[in-house]
Amino acid sequence: MLLTRASPTFLPSTSAASPSPQAPPAPIFGRSHRRGVVQLVSSCSPVAGQRSGSAARRSVMAAAGAVPAAKLEDADALIDSVETFIFDCDGVIWKGDKLIDGVPETLDMLRSKGKRLVFVTNNSTKSRKQYGKKFETLGLNVNEEEIFASSFAAAAYLQSIDFPKDKKVYVIGEDGILKELELAGFQYLGGPSDGDKKIELKPGFYMEHDKDVGAVVVGFDRYFNYYKVQYGTLCIRENPGCLFIATNRDAVTHLTDAQEWAGGGSMVGAILGSTKQEPLVVGKPSTFMMDYLAKKFGITTSQICMVGDRLDTDILFGQNGGCKTLLVLSGVTSVQMLQSPDNSIQPDFYTNQISDFLTLKAATV
């Protein structure tokens, strides 16, 4: 088993595997995100009295049970307090195919201080090997063993539940998922090859599907179409025990550095809408990858700092796993979004980008 512990809020239940039309969909987590975040933040945020913010905002956050994030001022203190840094990629290391300023120097500095670096991305379009090539192309020396993509998480999850090798996986997604499933020894169909398939909706048309499909994995898919929606829906609704697995539910992604693009959550949402079944999410903010990493490297989560640009995936991922959390404003989240009274997801610290580790370090010397 790859999991370090069985999480009742993550692993599929009997009802999730074989839903009835009358049964309500099972939630991704055992409690609501908002309530869960409030509980987690209130139990691990140590400097409520020192953090800035308007009196009205503090009042709202206090009523919700959360503590406003502190702006990172002493980088050395944070660096010295943890053993491992987990970095999100899109919006933290790069945007699209453009490296964010100061990243190489920052990673080199952290390595020189003996810190373990891990890169976790919800983007499932590439395998770990393919991401390794992207890091190399951008001039970054990152080992494949340090990379954990949600494409890999999907295959690792199926291994962790001893998914039968005689069953097949239908993939709504791109090449990264196919490569990881193949490496794990699973049979699959779908993926980019179904991108040009169309359904001729003529009277009496009946669409066949493979009855041996035991799981449908949905990730970001630039070749998404109605054929895939229908095929995945048939497998989930008609194949007994067929799992619905999502690599992530990100609303937006960085396909280019020019603007935000609809993310994998839009593809997952289409299948959820047609099946009325909630997916099992293996990417952030699910704790599956955190459990896997903690076991693989033999570290406690209190010695980890999660660095990301998204509140509802990266920061929640770190908080759900019991880690320190640092939000960077180089991606999708602005300081206005962070400080909005409607936001209850508060990291321990926030800063502009990870290269602030260098400038803030210099300022404290």
From TrEMBL:
Chief location bin: plastid
UniProt keyword Hydrolase, yes or no: yes
UniProt-listed Enzyme Commission number(s): 3.1.3.18
One Pfam family from the record: Hydrolase_like
UniProt GO MF annotations: phosphoglycolate phosphatase activity
Location in or out of the cell: Plastid, Chloroplast
Keywords associated with the record: Acetylation, Chloroplast, Hydrolase, Phosphoprotein, Photorespiration, Plastid, Transit peptide
Keyword match Cell division: no
Catalytic activity, reaction form: 2-phosphoglycolate + H2O = glycolate + phosphate
GO CC list: chloroplast
Low complexity bias spans: 1-20
Signal peptide: none
Region entry Disordered, spans: 1-29
Single biological process term from Gene Ontology: photorespiration
UniProt record similarity statement: Belongs to the HAD-like hydrolase superfamily. CbbY/CbbZ/Gph/YieH family.
Function (record text): Photorespiratory enzyme that dephosphorylates the 2-phosphoglycolate produced by the RuBisCO oxygenation reaction.
Xref: NCBIfam families: HAD-SF-IIA, PGP_euk
Name assigned to this protein: phosphoglycolate phosphatase
Taxonomic source organism: Oryza brachyantha (malo sina)
